[in-house]
Amino acid sequence: MKLLWPDLSSWSIPRTAWIQVEVTTRCNAACIYCPRTAYRDAWHDRSLSPATFRRLLPALKKTRLVHLQGWGEPFLHPNFFTLTALAKEAGCRVSTTTNGMLLNAEKLRQVVESGLDLIAFSLAGLEELNDRARPGTSFRQVLAAIQTLNRLKAAAGSATPQIHIAYLLLKSGLPDLKRLPQLLEGLGVQQAVISTLDFVPTRELAGESFTAGDPAAHAELQARLVEMASAAGSVGVPVHYSLKSPGVRGLLCPENPQGGLCVAADGTVSPCVFTNLPVSRATYVGLAGEQPYQPLVFGNLLEQDLGAIWRRPGYVNFRRTFFTGCLATPCRHCLKL
């Protein structure tokens, strides 16, 4: 009698909470705070090949969420909906973040039909402030895309994709914050996530980050966020934000690199999107001031499967640093902590 041995190949694949996949580093916008704009002379435009994405499929079967977006506009990828279909077939939830400028009615119809679970629209202020901070985008066009998407979902009888707002709060946009609940009311948005400028690519942008603020400024910001979140909640839109106290070092990273990972458009694997910018040279402003940018990469899917990369001693030791406190260099200087 032939003995049937269990298939052990999947045992080596990590079970993750999330995998972020950078489908492209190309973009049709030039947001003033984005590394792609700040480092444009040293930036590498690249797009993920479907063949490389297929190497991820065994891992996608063991993750809860795959987020199809990195340092670029995902809908510039000609095979975006093919990648979405492959991820859905793997059985995980699929999300993306977009500037919304390529989403005409036909593209939005494809979004609904694709089964995409969540789509977040990026903003960095309201009306003129957003358009100044995000050249190449239009606040009004984003709102129109959200309204069209809601109509198409209703016509198809579909509850997905959920619609979120990814709102970057710059210091110059603080006065606009109190008007955000008014915008969200009746827009058909399920959630808004507020973030601050945690990666500062140039000295000129340091003034837009709240992280270096004094305790009084931090207390004022906290009070404004609480007030705004309460007002948004009263109109049925939950608002989430993570605000670190100035001068207090944390070990729990909101990116959760112990439970997830990022795959760049060239197949390289890193702990988070901030540790693998597609640049040949750059400096940035961290906790210790301006310093050279150094990527933190642990392997490439074109050379090894994800399970082997995840188990590399260097990667294992990196994840342990969040328990020992001896953080890797990029994390020691990261404003998120």
Structural features, described:
With 337 residues, the chain is an alpha/beta fold. The protein contains twelve helices and twelve strands. The radius of gyration is 20 Å and the shape is globular.
- Strand order of the main beta sheet, please? 7-6-5-4-3-2-1-8-9-12
Strand proportion = 15-25%
Gyration radius from CA atoms, angstroms? 20 Å
State the low-pLDDT regions, or none. 1-10
Gap from first CA to last CA? 59 Å
Number of helices: 12
The ordered string of helix (H) and strand (E) elements is: EHHHEHEHEHHEHEHEEEEEEHHH
The SS-based structural class is: alpha/beta
- Strand elements, count: 12
- Helix content percent band: 25-40%
Mean pLDDT: 91
Query: What is the approximate shape?
Result: globular
The major pleated sheet works out as: 10 strands, mixed
Quickly describe the structure.
By secondary structure, this protein is of the alpha/beta class. It has helices at residues 35-38, 50-54, 57-60, 80-90, 105-114, 128-133, 139-156, 180-184, 215-234, 306-310, 313-324, 329-332; strands at 18-21, 65-68, 93-98, 118-123, 162-169, 191-196, 239-241, 260-263, 268-270, 283-286, 289-292, 299-300.
Descriptive labels:
337 residues; 16% strand; 12 strands; single chain; disordered N terminus
What topology does this entry show?
Layout: E1 18-21, H1 35-38, H2 50-54, H3 57-60, E2 65-68, H4 80-90, E3 93-98, H5 105-114, E4 118-123, H6 128-133, H7 139-156, E5 162-169, H8 180-184, E6 191-196, H9 215-234, E7 239-241, E8 260-263, E9 268-270, E10 283-286, E11 289-292, E12 299-300, H10 306-310, H11 313-324, H12 329-332
Parallel strand pairs: 1-2, 1-8, 2-3, 3-4, 4-5, 5-6, 6-7
Antiparallel strand pairs: 8-9, 9-12, 10-11
